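Collaborator request, handled under Task 6.
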Amino acid sequence: MQVLHETFADDSSVQVLAAHMGIGDERMRGRETPAEYAEENGYTYLMVADGREIAAALGVQGIPRFVVIGPDGSIVAEHRGRLTDEARDRLADAAREARPTG
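Structure tokens returned to the collaborator:
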């Protein structure tokens, strides 16, 4: 996620967002908020502390899930499971292709 955020840091047409689900996340043990986890790991992308409403709107049934949403609000690419370099690159390509022209 951080790599995607840095890839598009200078492109205002692409936003990287993490929606924390708070469901049995072992990495959160002993932390009060997802923001603490992000700060400890140097993550600078936007993070929503309670992403359940976002997940419901996108029909997310399993996590992790990575989604590229086009300017019209449609899902143009998605990946389920661990974010590999190959999957990250495919999502980045989809985000580039979905950017508005002009």
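The cover message to the collaborator said: "The first strand starts at residue 17 and ends at 19. The longest helix spans residues 85-98. Please let us know whether this matches your experimental observations."
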